[in-house]
Design goal:
There is one protein chain. The protein has one domain (about 30-235): 3-Layer(aba) Sandwich (Uracil-DNA Glycosylase, subunit E), CATH 3.40.470.10. The chain is about 45% helix and about 15% strand. It has helices at about 5-20, 45-60, 65-70, 95-100, 105-115, 145-160, 170-175, 185, 210-215, 220-235, and strands at about 25, 75-80, 85-90, 125-130, 165-170, 190-195, 200-205. The chain is globular. It has 10 helices and 7 strands. A hairpin with a 2-residue loop joins strand 6 and strand 7 (about 200-205).
Length: about 240
């Protein structure tokens, strides 16, 4: 790659960061309605596919990243790109890294059962991760890594343009809300973010991988799921 090409890529990445850099506006008191906008982030499948492809290239172009260097694959997202519900997990594990897909194996089975319990098929949602590469030895991403990838996550959310966001785990919570509080203190409460002039409700809950390790907390996730079901009903969302 020539020096000129590197400079051009650098300018492109900086341009992307300048566009999407503004932080999430985060509030514990959600409103009862959503602001809607008609722009490039509409439910245009062809446009979304192109935007996601460009975003994937930008994420893959990251340099000097231990996460990327440790991984076999970049894991972007799966499911319905026009879904009104976006699930954001923490980071890929070994199976996800091997296959290049989100929520595989035992974790994926549990996640599917969780949402089927509230009559939502997992393939009708869209799922992604806060970090698109597997951390070494499946360790928790650092706050610096979470912040670095949150720039791309913000753009990812804007492209999918969901009506409800579900954050699965503390890494997802920190990536979207900026909070590194204990997830046990934050889960189960409707919150909201404002991203690109759109207000989005979000629910924080435990990740399925955490629930596999600590099944006694499934009862709390069930309470969160019932609240998600009620919000879907209130907003007349069809999934």
């Amino acid at each position: 790659m020539t020096k000129r090409t590197l400079n051009q890529n650098g300018k492109y990445v900086q341009k992307l960061i300048n566009i999407i850099e503004p932080d999430f506006i985060f509030d514990n008191k959600p409103v009862n309605r959503l602001k809607s906008i008609k722009d490039i982030y509409s439910n245009d499948s062809k446009g979304k596919i192109e935007l996601l492809s460009n975003l994937k290239k930008q994420i893959f172009s990251i340099e000097n990243c231990k996460l990327k260097n440790n991984s076999k694959n970049i894991v972007m997202g799966d499911g319905n790109i026009n879904s009104p519900m976006m699930l954001i997990g923490e980071a890929p594990g070994e199976i996800e890294d091997d296959k290049g897909n989100t929520f595989q194996g035992e974790v994926g089975i549990l996640l599917k059962k969780m949402f089927e319990a509230i009559n939502i098929k997992i393939d009708k949602t869209y799922s992604t991760y806060s970090i698109n590469f597997r951390p070494p030895e499946d360790r928790k991403p650092t706050s610096q890594e979470i912040k670095r990838y949150s720039i791309f996550l913000k753009e990812h959310i804007s492209i999918i343009n969901p009506e409800i966001i579900v954050l699965l785990g503390s890494t997802a919570m920190e990536a979207v809300t900026g909070s590194n509080n204990k997830i046990s203190n934050e889960r189960g409460k409707w919150k909201e973010i404002i991203l690109k002039n759109r207000t989005l409700p979000l629910m924080i809950t435990f990740s399925p991988s955490y629930l596999i390790r600590f099944p006694e907390n499934k009862k709390y996730s069930w309470e969160d799921l019932k609240k998600i079901k009620q919000k879907v009903k209130e907003l007349s969302i069809k999934i």
